[in-house]
Amino acid sequence: MTLIGRARARAVQTLTLDSPHNRNALSAALVGELADALADAGQDTGVRAVVLTHTGNTFSAGADLKDPPPPEALVALLRRIIELPKPVVARVTGHVRAGGLGLLAACDMAAASTEATFAFTEVRIGVAPAVISLPLLPRTDPRALSRYYLTGERFDAAEATATGLLTTHADDVDTALAPILDGLRRSAPDALTETKRLLTARVLEAFDRDAAGLTALSARLFSSAQAREGMTAFLERRDPAWVV
């Protein structure tokens, strides 16, 4: 079964997360297939830019708790998006949770409909947004992250835009995307590549400095007793034992 749809229109390659049965959760299989699709797009001289979007009402629910990718694989996927020699633009028309927010932060730009909602739900299942912090911390307002990392609260597209998680939002996401994609199509390919390198240098410094430590932290937390309780409670649709 193919988990990533591929389509091309006027030099823009669209990659679609297509695993609606688990709300496009980041399974080991989906992460691997998306990484391969991005690599193909990066090597294709006919591709000017990549749009990353989704089927269903959820962009991504975060890590697949039944088949999670190794932390190293998620780090590699996020880095691939950032290092891709073509701009990557997220197109969101649904909900984004946990690890899915790492995908948004890794993209060069992100547009969402006003129906989209966002939440860093890691603390509510006993883990932390460790690996996804690699692109998030350099690109997003630190005060906003303090609130939403620590509380797991849900927030809307307007707040996501204000904090830097999104580039723009609109009732019709494609209306918001139109000038962005037009601008990319009008830009010289080599100039886009070099300009993206300027913009991503600080983010890649964070990867070089912190990836090993955050990968180890993620692995440790996911194997903890609190995480086992939190994930079991989530799957059983009940509150975990620590809720007061």
TrEMBL record:
Tagged with keyword DNA-binding: no
Keywords: Lyase
InterPro entries xrefs: ClpP/crotonase-like_dom_sf, Enoyl-CoA_hydra/iso, Enoyl-CoA_hydra_C, Enoyl-CoA_Hydratase/Isomerase
Single GO molecular function: enoyl-CoA hydratase activity
Pfam families hit by this protein: ECH_1
Keyword Glycosyltransferase: no
Enzyme class: lyase
EC number: 4.2.1.17
PANTHER family named in the record: ENOYL-COA HYDRATASE, POLYKETIDE BIOSYNTHESIS ENOYL-COA HYDRATASE PKSH-RELATED
Family indicated by similarity: Belongs to the enoyl-CoA hydratase/isomerase family.
Protein name: Putative enoyl-CoA hydratase
Species this chain originates from: Streptomyces chartreusis NRRL 3882
